[in-house]
Amino acid sequence: MEMSVRTHGTLVQRRARARPVRRTAGIDDPIGNLSRAAHRRPGGRPAARGPHNPAVILILYAHPHPRRSSAGRTLLDGVRDLDGVTVHSLYDAYPDFAIDSAAERERIGAARLVVWQHPLYWYGVPALLKLWWEQVLVHGWAYGDGGNALSGKDCLWVTTTGALPDAYSDNGVHGHPFEVFVPPVRQTARFCGMNWLDPIVVHGAHRLQPEALRAAASQYRSRLAAYVERHG
Ligand SMILES: Cc1cc2nc3c(=O)[nH]c(=O)nc-3n(C[C@H](O)[C@H](O)[C@H](O)COP(=O)(O)O)c2cc1C
User: Fold this and answer.
1) 0.85 cut: is pTM over it?
2) How many domains does the chain have?
3) pLDDT tens digit string along 187-205?
4) pLDDT tens digits for 45-102?
5) Distance 129 CA to ligand 1 centre (A)
6) Cα separation of 193 and 17, whole Å?
7) Rounded distance from Cα 207 to ligand 1 centre (Å)
8) CB-CB contact of 221 with 82 (8 Å)
9) What is the DSSP letter of 23?
């Protein structure tokens, strides 16, 4: 099964490896995963994950309809059980869009890698992630005088699109190469002093077979596992 995954602007066609999907708690458990065996410490006690004891990697998952998701959910299920990873589903946490900015800042504080994962909506991030940027990444904390809370952290963008790669070209239905739509996300991270890592972009999410989606999830998992290995 062929799939298309674009990382750092490079289209990778690869054969999907047959790998069983881990069907874990799913996104009905938006924040904690605290009771999951995979998150237990060697001593058997669950790793406390939350604002006061953050993981190495914090995934901010911004899917407006998490329970209807196929691609995003498959990607997330591929990584959520990794030790050192915490998933924070923004649309589950804030269905009313009333973001607790102070809690968000505290949550992100000690994570070394911040992941922004979402479906591409109108060539950008879904509304709640945009609002999260506006309300959490504020002057004096994320940028400007004394605003160095995110400085030196790493940022990974993980997004899925409905369109196949060819649609993102001058003659394609979206009229521009996909790279044209990257700078608003990349520069948001860089403006806050974060290091921009090679993104994971899964194109044509609707058309990919389950095996291809699982292959993308496997790639995602490898990236995060390697990061935890280096920084955990
Ligand atoms: C409101 C809306 C806007 C969208 N905008 C885009 C877009 O700009 N470019 C694109 O390729 N796909 C677009 N899509 C398709 C989604 O990106 C696609 O359905 C999603 O990545 C599939 O992932 P999921 O199975 O996790 O929902 C849009 C979908 C919706 C509902």
Assistant:
1) no
2) 1
3) 999 999 999 999 999 999 9
4) 333 344 434 479 999 999 999 999 999 999 999 999 999 999 999 999 999 999 999 9
5) 15
6) 37
7) 12
8) yes
9) -
